[in-house]
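sorry for the late reply, my laptop died twice this morning and i had to redo everyting from scratch. anyway the thing you sent over, i finally got around to it. pasting the sequence first so we're on the same page, its 93 residues, then the predicted structure underneath. double check i copied it right bc i was rushing
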Amino acid sequence: MDYNRIERITHMEENLDIAKKALEDFEKSLENFLAVQKNIKELSDYYFSRQWMADYDADNRGEIPQNLKRGVLSEDAAYNLICLNDMLLSKLK
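ok and here's the structure:
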């Protein structure tokens, strides 16, 4: 019996299984990524608008409730997300 052949086939079968799982996971992630592009576009439009600046200023003046989740008003959270999205889109091209 050719053990090298058996080892090779076994190793390649492992490669097949690993790659199949990774590609299936990537396909699901890609579908999710593409599905949120509308949300990211809306967030980007808001972030670069006068309305965001007005909301940001209102928050700094204490006019936004402190218990309201408002990470979108931080300067970095939305910007970093938009930049990451742009980088990932360019990698896909």
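The chain has two domains: 1-35, 36-93.
thats about all i looked at so far, will dig more tmrw
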